[in-house]
Amino acid sequence: MARIPLEDNFNDVINKAQRGLKISDADLALRAEVSPADLAAVKAGTILDPIIRRLARHLRLTPKALENLAHKRWYPQLPDFPKGFAMFNTPHEEMTVNSYLIWDPRTKLAAAFDTGANCVAMLDLLHAEELKLHYIFLTHTHDDHIAALPQLARETNAEVWASELEPAPFPQAKTFKENVHFHVGSLAIKTLSTFGHSPGMTTFFVTGLSWPIAFVGDAVFASSMGGSATHFAEQYRNNREKIFTLPRDTVLACGHGPLTTLAQEKQSNPFFAH
Predict the structure, then answer these.
(1) Domain 10-70 homologous superfamily, CATH
(2) Of 181, 153, 189, nearest in space to 168 by CA
(3) What share of the chain is helix, strand, coil (3-state, %, to 5)?
């Protein structure tokens, strides 16, 4: 698979934090003691390090991490899964979206997390590895994440599961509560409510593969987090309390952008770096 670009640039991070904290341009410029012209230039993509550092401090972002993001000094080191894991990146309108497949090599039972915009490659892998797709888990029900749900469910007869706070628009779909456990052969799956980006935004924490892995949907991205104009505080709190307390070697399988790890995000994500 080709290298997947980061979902957000440094100015995207600034805009998300500003929108979430409900700070106007005029107020931000005043608080950070920068000129409106310099603020506008940074938000348009111009890299002005002293301005970026000032803005970060007033947006509850880590200045060094934001500066590194601006200069493209960081990209996550990708974890290796020798078996039982696959990532799919499919185009949807002007972006791409991720979906994932895990399976127990012994029993050949599999589970999908979201469907992306196209599930042909996932279906091909299921066939090639002679896997039985038992579950389709939805992190949330935004169109880009479930565009291929009807086809994937129809061709595999897998059970479709989504949060009770955000049921799937699919006739046979089932719903779960937080802290429910599923099993796929030797793999254990636990549901964590990380709402904010959407009402039922769910993180699925999986153990039994080469590394613990969290399918986080649009809660967290490599070096950023999902946007929320109305529930930013709840999303940030859920991310910190539910995701950033998982084991440090946990892989984060995000809804957009590349894979990353919790340890790397604690160092390099402007929203969460120490």
Answers:
(1) lambda repressor-like DNA-binding domains (1.10.260.40)
(2) 153
(3) 30, 25, 45
pLDDT over 90 percentage in the chain:
94
pLDDT beyond 90 at 80: no
Specify whether the CB–CB gap between 212 and 203 falls below 8 A: no
Query: Regarding beta strands 174-176 and 159-163, do their DSSP bridges make them parallel or antiparallel, or are they unpaired?
Result: parallel
pLDDT tens column, 152-198:
999 999 999 999 999 999 999 999 999 999 999 999 999 999 999 99
Domain with CATH 1.10.260.40 in the chain: 10-70
Nearest to 122 by CA among 93, 96, 155, 94: 155
What pLDDT is stored for residue 267 in this prediction? 97
DSSP letter (8 states) at residue 226: -
CATH ID of 85-268, from 3.40.190.10, 3.60.15.10, 3.30.1510.10, 3.90.950.20: 3.60.15.10
Q: Where in the chain is the domain with CATH 3.60.15.10?
A: 85-268
Per-residue b or e along 49-80, where b marks 16 or more CB atoms closer than 10 Å to that residue's CB = eebbebbbebbebbbebbbbbbeeebbbebbe
Please report the DSSP string for 58-117 in residue order. HTT--HHHHHHHHTT---PPPP--SSSEEEEEEEETTEEEEEEEEE-TTT-EEEEE---S
pLDDT value for 256: 97
Q: Are 63 and 57 in contact (CB under 8 A)?
A: yes
Say how far apart CA 150 and CA 141 lie, in whole Å: 13
